[in-house]
Design a protein that fits this description.
214 residues; mainly alpha; Serine Threonine Protein Phosphatase 5, Tetratricopeptide repeat; 82% helix; 0% strand
Length: 214
């Protein structure tokens, strides 16, 4: 019984050693291709290494970098998240979190990238590059918010303008000639004088007639 257990254990250790050798070989090959800028060819090697050891944080960090170089930013963020969660050293955790922030910035997810930079800066307060990118992202977010406010203000102004145009506009009054106005007023004055004159004549005529006898 004991001999059987010893043999089984030895076989298990041998299998683990073989897998570790295969994993390390795949990582070395992937790293070489990565340094040569052959990111498309490096990806399968990193994937092979991770299939042998899915919990390897360095493997997730490396494949995240390769995907980042291929502009696959969404999946790179996932890999950096996994690497940071499984990291056994503060340095790897900080680098993974920082790279996540950069990948989020590439996707224009400024608010999320700012949170990632803040977390990375907490892990390493002396990291000047992280601080620089954090300040840059904050500045870009402020600029974006100002642009959104300006666009909203412009939209409100355009809506008010459209509403104003839809209302019936008052018709412009015809301009009266000054000379014609004076002639019109003079004509009215003459007519009024004529009426007064006729009324006065009627009163005089009525006063000169004799009274009737009854």
């Amino acid at each position: 019984m004991n001999r059987s257990l010893t043999i089984t254990l030895a076989l298990a250790l041998c299998t683990a050693a073989t897998q570790a050798q295969t994993e390390n070989k795949a990582i070395r090959s992937a790293n070489k291709l990565y340094k040569e800028g052959k990111f498309e060819e490096a990806l399968p090697q990193y994937e092979k290494a991770l299939s042998l050891n899915p919990g390897n944080p360095v493997g997730h960090y490396n494949i995240g970098n390769a995907r980042f170089r291929k502009d696959d930013f969404a999946n790179a963020v996932k890999d950096f998240d996994t690497a940071a969660a499984a990291a056994t050293t503060n340095e790897l955790k900080q680098r993974s979190t920082y790279n996540k922030g950069v990948a989020l910035t590439k996707q224009k997810k400024l608010q999320e990238s700012i949170e990632a930079y803040k977390q990375a800066l907490r892990l390493d307060p002396q990291d000047a590059i992280t601080r620089y990118n954090l300040e840059k992202a904050l500045s870009e977010l402020k600029k974006q918010q100002q642009q959104n406010q300006q666009q909203q203000k412009q939209q409100e102004q355009d809506q008010k303008k459209d509403q104003k145009q839809q209302k019936p506009q008052p018709q412009p009054q015809p301009k009266l000639d000054k000379k014609k106005i004076e002639q019109f007023l003079k004509s009215l004055e003459q007519k009024e004088q004529e009426v007064q004159r006729k009324m006065q004549q009627n009163k005089t005529r009525a006063a000169s007639q004799p009274e009737k006898d009854w």
